[in-house]
Amino acid sequence: MKNIGEYMIITVNKNIKSEEFLDLEHIINNKGLFLKEIDSEHFLVTGDTYKFDEQSILVLPGVLGVTRIKPTYHLVSRDVKMQDTIINIGNVKIGDGSLSFMCGPCSVNSEEEILRIAKGVKESGANILRGGAYKPRTSPYFFQGLGEEALKYLKEAGEKYNLPVVSEIVDSKDLDLYLKYVDIIQVGARNMQNYELLKKLGGTKKPILLKRGPSATIEELLMSAEYILKAGNPNVILCERGIRTFEKLERYTLDLSSVVILKKITHLPVIVDPSHAVGNYNFVSQMALAAIACGADGLMIEVHDHPVESVSDAFQSYKLSKLKSLIEKGKEIKEIINK
Amino acid sequence: MKNIGEYMIITVNKNIKSEEFLDLEHIINNKGLFLKEIDSEHFLVTGDTYKFDEQSILVLPGVLGVTRIKPTYHLVSRDVKMQDTIINIGNVKIGDGSLSFMCGPCSVNSEEEILRIAKGVKESGANILRGGAYKPRTSPYFFQGLGEEALKYLKEAGEKYNLPVVSEIVDSKDLDLYLKYVDIIQVGARNMQNYELLKKLGGTKKPILLKRGPSATIEELLMSAEYILKAGNPNVILCERGIRTFEKLERYTLDLSSVVILKKITHLPVIVDPSHAVGNYNFVSQMALAAIACGADGLMIEVHDHPVESVSDAFQSYKLSKLKSLIEKGKEIKEIINK
Amino acid sequence: MKNIGEYMIITVNKNIKSEEFLDLEHIINNKGLFLKEIDSEHFLVTGDTYKFDEQSILVLPGVLGVTRIKPTYHLVSRDVKMQDTIINIGNVKIGDGSLSFMCGPCSVNSEEEILRIAKGVKESGANILRGGAYKPRTSPYFFQGLGEEALKYLKEAGEKYNLPVVSEIVDSKDLDLYLKYVDIIQVGARNMQNYELLKKLGGTKKPILLKRGPSATIEELLMSAEYILKAGNPNVILCERGIRTFEKLERYTLDLSSVVILKKITHLPVIVDPSHAVGNYNFVSQMALAAIACGADGLMIEVHDHPVESVSDAFQSYKLSKLKSLIEKGKEIKEIINK
Amino acid sequence: MKNIGEYMIITVNKNIKSEEFLDLEHIINNKGLFLKEIDSEHFLVTGDTYKFDEQSILVLPGVLGVTRIKPTYHLVSRDVKMQDTIINIGNVKIGDGSLSFMCGPCSVNSEEEILRIAKGVKESGANILRGGAYKPRTSPYFFQGLGEEALKYLKEAGEKYNLPVVSEIVDSKDLDLYLKYVDIIQVGARNMQNYELLKKLGGTKKPILLKRGPSATIEELLMSAEYILKAGNPNVILCERGIRTFEKLERYTLDLSSVVILKKITHLPVIVDPSHAVGNYNFVSQMALAAIACGADGLMIEVHDHPVESVSDAFQSYKLSKLKSLIEKGKEIKEIINK
Predict the structure, then answer these.
(1) Nearest alpha-carbon partner for C287 in C242, C222, C338, C238
(2) Which residues partner with B35 through β-bridges?
(3) HSE-CB for A110 with a 13 A CA cutoff
(4) Whether D265 contacts chain B with CB within 8 A
(5) Of D23, D140, D304, the CB nearest to B308
(6) What's the start-to-end Cα distance of chain C, in Å?
(7) Which of residues 122-181 of C touch A (CB under 8 A)?
(8) Considering the entire predicted model, what is its pTM?
(9) Pairwise CA distance, residues A183 & C52, whole Å
(10) pLDDT at B205 over 60
């Protein structure tokens, strides 16, 4: 399937000593790769260059530069597997050309609440229920989640309304809990490069929803996914949720171009979470529809619940009623772009 | 019309000397504004605070900080004018709820070429013709444009196919040429903060297409528009074209959230130019449709022309044929989001 | 000690309903804080506002905006503790006005190598030995470190040359190993927001070196330190190591202004790691000296060891000999800025 | 002098048609460059590749990618001229290994004030006087400068105290005024890519101080300098003044690594303006000294003058007295790093 060779170009000092050059060649060959001369200062490296760390070559005496022509990710690439990866979660499929909607509250605050919201989510046409149990909060003074209790309520609500559930893991020690209670394990943006966690998730077959870190490049997101695939788990869903920029009126800048680029270079499904980027729930629907126009395989949307029960019904139900219309419009846009 | 007051909060040292405080109050009052005590360390400034430069207060002895509650832009704000500004260019209206498509080549390279492309642009359903005459190029070694000759050909092509034309101005000395030849004067991203140019454009009534600089904040874009409005020209169209971020696989990151935010806070029309952001013509259509889903009033799209005439017909016409389908899909998406 | 009050300003809709307003006031009061009217649309919140999550107020009906005048960090702030925190590690003190130099190889590759380098580090005048045992690598195909074996060699080398040692932890399950083998536990940039790890480290009294994430704001770095202090461990050293920007010729942009700002607002020591930012060992010394000119309490510097033993001696010892001169120059600059 | 060849690598589709390939070769050869085959998909372009716009190759049918091994700047590079460029302005030399200090008020507000400040600047040991005449302000409501009157006062003050003067030009129509009144013409960050202005300045021999735009890459700064050199003026001084990042506690992030990188790749002098970056005059001295430690050839520092004459003497003279100490410390640090 792999039809494009891997390449790196090494630039050496034109006065490189012969023992320095032999040393360089020795290291390259030891990895099963080959040096091919372009001219006296430039050499092509062919073979599985993704295994190679530029830094380890750059420090060699006589070497001036290393230019990577092919990126370092591998198993996640369409060069290795052309066909779209389809994730199966019960009756739900992600990545098969359909649209998935993962909706629910930011955190699971009570059994009653999550049951009530799950009902609304189902009736709105969404097909997956989300809800936080362990919340990674910037401040230690903010609510950190109900933990296992929340996972139980979430599973109960999912089963009652026939919705697979997704929740974020924040420590590898909780893996067994997540294997037991949830259908998709989310790795949040802050843990995208927690490689020990990724390796452990790679040891399961559970679908993993991997969110892009707020300053991760697209290539780094793919490398994190590569950790999971290399460890044996092919069921990874990528998620764009906004990157950090200088713009002050946005919490994060939703990078919708990344969806188009990712769909081009990887076979993994790509979804978008517009809830946290703009930082204003009034803007979620536009960004959600735009994500679909860009070719996203689905959306993760927080359904905000009013924090004070007795007053909040109008506020909350407004949001749920908006969800149904949003999902319908999203499906219509999907049809248009598929023409 | 203006229904929200302007506010700033000044934090002073709790040991501020009385003469320092009188001095502060004097400066505030001299601008026609008022200080209102919150407590011994915090004072509210009410009135037209947009006229006030925080820096000039921050340097005062005894002052610890200045927090602006209301932004510095004014005439461009919906606080001052609620109704959408509609720009009229012959039969074309921008900002009235319809979609505009400004299409054409990056630069006008010959009379024949621009006539040929204009024909295709018209047949594809676009309503405005674009084409560069003076090109601001990063390198002095790259093609800098045909200048006035290009403007003449552009006008000729526009008249032949009944398309208003837009082209970028790069120096205020060329203003008379632009007033003569074009219907919309574009200010490129690199000149967004060329305030002398903005003041001169503000002295005309010609519609101005103002592009956001690659590292300009939304507020700075609005302040640049404010320069034009303050000088007397209300006909400004804003344009998002991508901001600079750390992402290496994108030339610029198209900030579509800015469209939603701008439509909320300003009455000026907002269009999107997806051509330069992603840096790959294959991705233009998805980003263009996403821009419409976000509520953009129109699109500016470069129709790429093959640089070598004899070979390029197939390549070029492929792009023009894609344009028609893109415009149709764009209009269908507009209908869906307007429901 | 705390001499500046905490403030937030809440902007409400001027047509806010009375039950909405009572609801807002109820929530504020429940946290032990108070609402004070500025005018009909603006209210001041006084008290321990750092406990308050803006988002939980922003979602309330009738609320238009929340402006935080005081930041959300607390224990780390000079408002709470004016005097510099001094970290004691054996004979070494960090934060007492002296300069610390934490030097050593990127990773511990063998017993012999770390002993050899430790000797050079000691002779160069550095006072702390660094070396990686578990390496968080972007690619799963790159060397991941020797693990516990590396920690043993590091401790051995540190004891032989009377140098306290520092190494990076990558998973909370390894905490006991780190408590046993190292004197300072490093939290790498990628784990700066691994809050579960931070909480566990906060349960010990071991000095923690907390690196700023490549896209973390200064406030977020302080909030992560706050997690450790709140959990009971006051021994935190902050470390600037470069942030992600659009500049392509730098791996990261070393943000030296952050040192000046941090020294102003927090009592914790601040060091700088220039090794990874510029991405070129030739530039390390200039940035290291600049960090000292900015007031850093110390430096962490990778001493690069040639990967091929037999050829690399010249290359490596060159670097170690540079270290001595660098440390001497650094101390001279420190004297000048202290005048 | 040029001792490193220029290179680009073109990746073509392995099924590229022979007429497509001939077309590509024709275009390359027409520019005086050559294609050399690496393998069936990769070709090396040798010759003056800085004249080549990647985009014009990327749009060719059959071409998949273009990798530039050498950058697009040329005359500014040490590849073309190894020796440092030294700018002579009367008795002052910039770039000869000495330190220059360009100091003065943000804007020239009155004859009396600039004379008073010039005296202090001279007595503090600075060797160049700065002062704004035309101020590019983000808001049209803020003070825009005294114009020609300010230039006259500045020249008068410079002559009285034997200080060459520098001031910012904001429109090419003012060039004659600047040629008459100032010794160094400053191009501000906002005009760094105002190429028409750069071409005109390149037509003179006046020293030009070119500031890096807040989101300009180092390569783009060099390309803007290239415009001036190519037009015939070799007297360009580069200036780092902070780039836009996500960090909210800094107005701009002073990128001191850029100084080290620039000194390596260009022969032009490099100075640093720390005044606007941190946004707090208390932090200027540390960043100024750090800039010297990085190898800067000089500093531009705003001496803040109190806006209210009658009260401000103490405040202002405090700043001027700090300047003398800063300059002395700066010179001592320069001596240390030169050892």
Answers:
(1) C242
(2) B45
(3) 7
(4) no
(5) D23
(6) 28
(7) 134, 136-143, 170-173
(8) 0.90
(9) 33
(10) yes
